Give the backbone structure.
Amino acid sequence: MSKYSNPMSRQVESLPELIRSQYEDLEPKARTVLSFQEIFNIQRIVLTGCGDSYAAAMATKHAFEMLTGIPTEVVTALELGRFYCKKHLGIDCRNPLVIAVSNSGTGARVAEAVERARKHGCFVLGVTGNPESLLGVNSDKILKLDIPSFESAPGTRSYMVSVLSLLLLAIRFGEVRLKYTMDQAMAYREDIKRQADALESLLPGMEDTCASVAEQWKDFPCYDFIGAGFDYATAWFGQAKILEATGKFAMHINTEEWFHLNFFARDAREMGTVVVANTTNPAHSRSRELVKYANVLHRPLVVITDGDKEDFGGEEAVYIKVPKTEYPITMPLTHFAPVCLIASYISELIGEKYGRGCEGDWSFAQGGAGVTNSEIIVD
Amino acid sequence: MLKNFKITTKFNEVHDITESVKKAVEESGVKEGTCVVYNPHSTAGLTVFSPWDPDGFIDLDQEICRLIPTRVDFKHQHDTPQDAAGHVKCALLGISLTFIITEGKLLLGGSQGIYFLEFDGPRNREFFVKIQSD
């Protein structure tokens, strides 16, 4: 346990056991939530959610497409509820399949999105711990989450469970549609389970490194998170955790766009820069180039990777090792752990309350009111 | 004597195990007796079939699939449609065969081969040969 231990870092420490227990809970549920007929009926998939759930959708979009061959979009709840073209909803007998993720199920935008999707003929699968919620009652089927309660902190455990549930659905869809054998499907599932042990063994060193980074970065005014593909989802999640845990400015951008935009930022020496760059990522060559130029700019630099310094041309950086998986699609399950630790330790070091404690100017957001108390308009 | 054989099958393969069974009988030293070939799986079968025309194997596979097509409305939905169909095929085709051993050899007709029928695959499979003397 780190010297800066706090509820959020303790959530990270609980992840290995949570992976084990949630796999046992969710694998049978993901196997049976949709029938063969419903799985064979899928022509397109829309993944939707808000906040961390949106990040979980981004983290698994490629897994859905790679495993099932089904075109898959990630659409924010606001886009799906207010902008998504009606003529593309309810086509080809209840398509697309809309998979909406929200553990609480109480967010107004997700409820609005699924109600609209259903109204126009989509099939809705809700991934939620609250079947009585607006998301639950507006879903055709529910993958019921049962996440054991824990000390409250910016979503860490719930994010892992969201990613896990979506990965298990993607594996199941591909298995049933005979994209690979049942043995191969089990190999994907075993790869998920193995990450519990892998993360557990890496956590002590990861905590020490993240604590050291937090000490050096705690007074920075801004942080920059960069990644590509499913690593971009981890980067996006990292900036979210910095905002929630520390209240400081944070940016997220994909690896190519960084060269078009974020590298222009001044005060680079005080901009904590986190590159999520796994060695099997198709954009790894661009990540290598980015790490090189981030050093030219004297950016304080962390690289989260399953590789090491040699994979980045020997460039100087703080390299944080995350589990190496057999199949790249399962990496998002644990690769966010370091960003949560860094955010949580900075929060602890500067004495900042998570979510500003919903006090003072932030009191309107008490109990999640900022996202639940919102007019629902279904067009 | 009980002997175990490991095989790796292909998708819906008709896998020839005749020589393995014949050899097991000859190596057993049993002159007169019986030989049971047993498959411990629930999505694979065993049968005797003519080996002479390779297209016959295609007929066999296609006729089995015509009788029990892979459908999405099987009630058993725990695994895959292919798996659900495989269970039914296995139940109908059977998982064991019995042969006569005489003069130290397997009594098999000239147009008879022994085949392991894969109803899923590719899979790592096994089968057993039990040899008993009279």
User: Anything to note?
Assistant: The first helix of chain A runs from residue 7 to 13.
